[in-house]
Amino acid sequence: MEVLDNLIRKLRKVKDLLPALLLAVIIESEAAIADLNIEQLQAGIRSDSSPIEPPYTPLTVAIKKVKGQPFDRVTLRDEGDFYQGIKIEVFQNEFRLIGTDNKTFKLESKYGEAILGLTQENRIRLIEEILLPGLVDKIRDILYYE
Fold this sequence. Notes:
The chain is mainly alpha-helical. The chain has one domain. It is built from six helices and two strands. It has helices spanning 2-28, 30-42, 58-67, 81-84, 104-111, 120-145, and strands spanning 86-90, 95-99. β1 and β2 form a beta hairpin. The chain is elongated. The model has no long low-confidence stretch (mean pLDDT 95).
């Protein structure tokens, strides 16, 4: 009976800690979450799955060609500062992607706030590929190693 009592105690602990465990996984996964957003931007897609518009001006297209960067879609990448500034802001029961680069306000004003955030497809990927495995690892640690 001691084994079952111990397991029940650990399961109750997991239940009580579940929100905090998920929050920890989110915080630990900040770079991976930002990478999902960057992947969308590189494809020229906003979080609402619409293309990033308006298109580049002819001058920007010419500059992109010279730099060897994509010019057939808006990627919002020139030197990478905007991408590097993508972080998460965590609240009690949610998080959101924010831009910390000084160009963020200008880019959101021109291209819309939906440049930051995840598409439905990437939200599913986030849950299945990042959050659930991370949460399972934390639960396993409690059940097996505490």
